[in-house]
Amino acid sequence: MNTMQSMLRTIATAALTLGLLSGCAAGGDQMPTDAAGLTQDDVAEMSLHQEFDAFGDHYEHMQRLLKDAQLLVYDGEWEWGGGDDLPLIGGDGVAPLPGADTKNSYYMRSGRLWSPPGAAGEQRDLQPMLDYFTDQGWTIEQRDITGDHELWGYTGDGWQLIYTAQENGRYTLEVYSELFWTNDGNALSDAIYGRSTVTFPDRSRPGVYPDFPEWDDPIVNEPKI
Amino acid sequence: MGIEFDDAAASRLVSCAVEVALTLRASAGPRRSTAEAALLDFDGAYARLFEAARATESTDRVRLAKGLEALVDQLRITQRQADEERQRLADLAAWRQRETDRELVRTAGGVPMQPVLDWTSAVFDPKPSSTPRRPSPVSATFSARTRQRTGGGRSGGRSSADPTRLRQFSATARAQDASTEQDMVRVRNAWTAFTSRCSWVPVDGATLPGGFGDYLAENAEDASWTARIADAFRAAGGGSLADTALDAAAASTLPPGLQRLLDPSLTPAEVAAIWAALGFTDADVRALPLTTQLQFAGLDGVPAAQRDTASRAVLSAAVRDPERLSRLMGLAYTYGAVSLDQFREQVIALRDGLNRADQLAGRLKAPSAAVAQLVGFGVSNGALVAAVALGDLDTASNVTVNVPGAMTTLDSMGEKVRAANELLFAAGQRGSAEDSFAVVSWIGYRAPGVIEVPRQDRAHAGGANLASFLDGIHDSRGTAPRSVTVLGHSYGSTTAAEALAQTRHRVDSFVTYGSVGFTDTTTPEHLNVDRVYATEGTNDHTARFGRIGRTDPRDLPDVDTFSAEAARGTKAVTGHDMYPEAGGVGYLSPDATSQRTIAKIIATGKP
Fold first, then answer.
1. Which range marks the domain in which residue A148 is found?
2. What's the ipTM?
3. Is A92 within a domain?
4. Which residues, numbered 177 to 196 in chain A, qualify as contacts with chain B under a Cβ-Cβ cut-off of 8 Å?
5. Which of chain B's residues have a Cβ under 8 Å away from the Cβ of A140?
6. Does B564 reach chain A within 8 Å, measured CB to CB?
7. What is the pLDDT of residue B417?
């Protein structure tokens, strides 16, 4: 799925990020950084095209986080919680980002579900995922809520995973990003949606997900009004 | 002394009438061929109406030509009669001259010659007739017949047509009629000249010049009618349309079948029943005139898909021409209504929010439908109101309606929709595999300003709107939703309580967050709801000030409370907001404890 293009884009974004970060370090800037380590000023220098490509990288990263965690418990088909290729409402997120509001920031999230045979939301069912989170060195939280058991893992680099064993036998894996700065969340959403031709699957095996569109793809979805 | 008859005027009228009659007869071929082309792929009652109108036009055109030809015949007779009368008058004048001469001879010849002279003049120069010749009266009569162009709004059938062919007919007919109109002007001018310069000729009937105009007016209405039908089919995107929808689209007034729907005393159930009988499709709604779409956009009991079609058409028109729509909605004449500038801003905000909803809805997973619906757009108490659903409100098994509080306008629809999207995702993760969801961001009432919060009048008015909306969801659907949840934020909870004291259909769960309280008549025992839940954060320092004179739902028996404080993995609300625009944690922020609990109530009916 466009692996080469994705890799090149990752390298370009990493170089940009590194350059911007070194600039900040040299200037001793203490401005708050987002889930990608960028300040709002850094992102202000980025074009919509660059934000689009950076979003694509976040999308790939989110899918990898999901895949690695999914494979720990089940390598068969998982239900999708919905399409996950658009920036979501900002302002508040997994970690605070001072100055963020609903227009200048966004977050990302995705979710998958599976139903282990005979499962009924036992706390012990969280153990494989707990071990995995522990192995990754992530910060962990656990809580019980009216019969369901939730396990939270904070990656320390801008992402959070939640694995829930529900008493209805449906086990969910959700991944949330911390906030990312944007110059215009609506414009970014329009840019992605406009180029998107995918139909999101109802179910898929871990690691199988639609390609993120390319900037040079034609605009195929115009606003209805 | 002559007669009042201008040969030139009569001749001009004759030649003009001959030419126009010929032209009218000659136009039969092209007119018939364009009509026949329009009738290709034109089926149903409207095709029959079109065919009948065409036949009437054709018959009238022939009758008009015959009327002109009959006029020509009569004019030719009167011309001959005028010639004869002029001749008679000339002969009489000449005879009188001769008689005068003879009188001189008689006077000179004396009495003995008189009998001889009388006899010879009587034999050889008789006196011409002194009786004036009466001309035959002229009659120019023709009256155009009116043509039927509506099924009366009750036919129940459907029609289909190729809008391009109808457009072509309309354009060709208009061009022909423009030329015929020049002919009519010539005939009328010639007729006026004839009647003013040929007063010797009596006129028995003169309906033709007026009837000619009526014929052309009928033709013009035919062309406009056909164009409106073409527009309706084009707006509908092809396919067939209900004859009742075409009645509304093609007529300048709403047909009786549709007027019944707009009776304000109808309940949503009655609206739903009448609507179902109409058998309208989305295409039919697209084909309706804008004023009718505006009325249907606000009609509870109309299915969400078709309400969406009507509401989007109105919103689209408001974006294009805000001034016109503002007037059409009566805002210019309503005391305290939104200004034109506010109208513009809110319309754009609603459009952007709806476009956002379309994008997000495309990512909803089955069995939830990947659609967003604008289920209402209009005016209430001078405020612009609207509701946006994520998911299909007509089919979702699990329906949630979120009611915002004070100070809310359509400006915030984008935030409301995005918060609803996260709520829907969270509920979807917690529901069963069979559940399909729809979450409505309902801004369907004039929310109070800050100083109005202690008063109940906005809640009364809004509650009536919301009760109608909630009942309309049930009444417009084929099958009832498995679960309905109403969420009320701040003053929205007060409004929702008023609504739930009036609804006919029972609601499963009512959740208040940051409530400004219930009145004594809206405590849970008065509400048509199975379960009432309430939450409020300790950092919410606003809700309590709004509760003056009202009761905190958390203090009421039969209300289950849940936490809005921090828990492992989730956060406490940091203020009163549903979703803070400028950072902080709101009740529906995705990492708020309250949001996750509300999502679980939506999905399972319990926290």
1. 3-204
2. 0.86
3. yes
4. 186, 189-190, 193, 196
5. none
6. no
7. 96
Contact status, residue B458 vs residue B443, Cβ threshold 8 Å:
no
B316 contacts chain A (CB < 8 A): yes
Which pLDDT score, from 0 to 100, does residue B153 have?
A: 59
Residue-range domain boundaries for chain B: 7-151+160-234, 271-604
User: What is the C-alpha separation between B514 and B401, in angstroms, rounded?
Assistant: 16
Per-residue confidence (pLDDT) for residue B148, from 0 to 100? 86
Out of B430, B569, B597, closest to residue A166 by CB: B430
Q: Is-contact B476 B275, C-beta < 8 A?
A: yes
Q: From chain B, pick out residues whose CB is under 8 angstroms from the CB of A108.
A: none
Chain B contact probe: residue of A92, A94, A145 with most B CBs at under 10 A:
A92
Q: What is the pTM of this model?
A: 0.76
What residue in A sits closest to B570 (Cα-Cα)? A94
- Closest partner residue to A150 (CB to CB) among B312, B419, B569 is B569
pLDDT of residue A3: 43
Which residues in chain B (413-452) have CB-CB distances under 8 A to chain A? 414-415, 418-419, 421-422, 425, 428-430, 432-433
Residue A223 domain-assigned (yes or no): no
- Selection from B438, B437, B419, B414 nearest residue B356 by Cα: B414
Look at chain A and report how many structural domains it folds into: 1
Is any Cβ of chain A less than 8 angstroms from the Cβ of B356? yes
pLDDT 10s digits, B497-522: 999 999 999 999 999 999 999 999 99
Give B 270-299 residues with CB within 8 A of chain A: none
Q: What is the CATH number of the domain that holds A62?
A: 3.30.2030
Please tell me the predicted confidence (pLDDT) of residue B154: 59
- Class at the top of the CATH hierarchy for domain B271-604: alpha beta
SS3 at position B139: strand
Q: Which of A163, A165, A181 is nearest to A116 (CA)?
A: A165
Q: Specify the pLDDT at position B252.
A: 57
Tell me whether residue A37 is in a domain.
yes
Q: Do B583 and A100 touch (CB under 8 A)?
A: yes
Closest to B585 (Cα-Cα) out of A158, A159, A95: A95
Mean pLDDT for the stretch of residues B1-12:
90
A224 domain-assigned:
no
Handedness of CA B571, B573, B574, B577 (dihedral sign): positive
